[in-house]
Amino acid sequence: MSLLPNRHDDTGNDPAVQSLSIFNQPSKGSKKRTLRKLTEKEKKSAELHVLLNCPKVQPFLDYFVSQYGHDQVFPSFITWYTNWAYFSENAATFDQVFKDISWGPITVHTMYQYNVNGFKFSIEKYSKNNKTNNSGVWVKGDDGNQNENVDYFGVLHEILELEYWGWPIKRIVLFQCKWFDPTSRGTRELKQHNITEVKHTRKYEAYDPFIIVENAKQVHYAPYPLRRDKSDWWVVIKTKPMGRVEVENELDVAYQNEITSVHEVVDAELEMNLDHPDHILE
């Protein structure tokens, strides 16, 4: 998922970081924050994800992949990029901002809520204690096999704010998520009803938990309370900003009584009734 950099418009106010527009977005998180020390694995994954989402790093990534292959991106790209920034023959002309980010974050803070793209996200631990669960996450990504439009559904585990070395100050917020299996074994579409399901007992095998918050959309998950054979599957309910539920096209009337009640779905406390005859689904 991380091998497909996402493009961002330049929105920063400081000219020195205009080219790194993913940094210094207006803070929309909860005021209560806790200092967090990342594990080496977490730090490497978060740092790599940030680098791969900087458009001006893309030429370096392209060159690296052409020389060493995709398989070496996670284990080796950060070290290679840092050496290039500081020790290559062009190091003297290398933008200091890009040198700063090559060292990775110097401090990390966590928070439990964050507002972005018109959605109010809360971490899973916090949402469990609330009437409305706002921890469902949906993002588009690639699968590492040239498929660039894959749906990833998951649950928000942590919200992390990373601060980088040097001046001007560079901060970025990441969501750390627990993803469901995006393959057909864990995610499937019921095209006859325009419904997407995830198997919540199947997890994504690769370690790629981080996304930049601006890429996140919100979803809610609804169980099948009357179907024991469907207990491992949840219906994905995509939401629009401000808590409006997005239902693609119309669901068959026969489908609208299967899920008798959907609790904790949206801020508006919407309840959705769906039905589904036994002969349609496995």
TrEMBL record:
Residues 160-236 form the DUF4216 domain. PANTHER family: DUF4218 DOMAIN-CONTAINING PROTEIN-RELATED, TDCA1-ORF2 PROTEIN. This is DUF4216 domain-containing protein. It comes from Solanum bulbocastanum.
